[in-house]
Amino acid sequence: MNGGFHCHTCGKHHAELPMEFGADAPALYFLIPEEERASRCDLTPDLCMIDGEHFFIRGVVEIPVVDGPHPFAWGVWASLSKASLQRVFEMWEVEGRESEPPYFGWLSTSLPLYPETLHLKTHVHTRLVGQRPLIELERTDHPLAVEQRQGITMERVREIAERILHDDGMCH
Q: Does the pLDDT value for residue 93 go beyond 90?
């Protein structure tokens, strides 16, 4: 289906249907006044530490697409304990790190189109070196957790894209 899609919101044809959307930082980062972020936050593309007390890792919530070629992905942040973050650092470049047991965390990204997603319980699964961790949501009846377990259709991916692209002002 990635010959693009017809957007029901703006009526235009878009050349490609995005299969991933994500957040650049955990939600807590955006609550820090901008002028304080440099002194209070250490943010990289993969990790974030705030005030030396709050630790986050960037990963993906993959949603199977039942009628598509590959999963849809939400790029999200999950909180980790200090001990878990230290272990992540130890294993960062170690081949075989994907066999590590998952780390417990709390989802630290508020995703649009769902009831509040902040603080959903997660398991953070490290993957091969160079790949972002897989964020597995606890089995609940939260719509995001249900979609992660049961999958979505390409039509749902289109609906997500339309909302995100228009809410962000990206659809022209």
A: yes
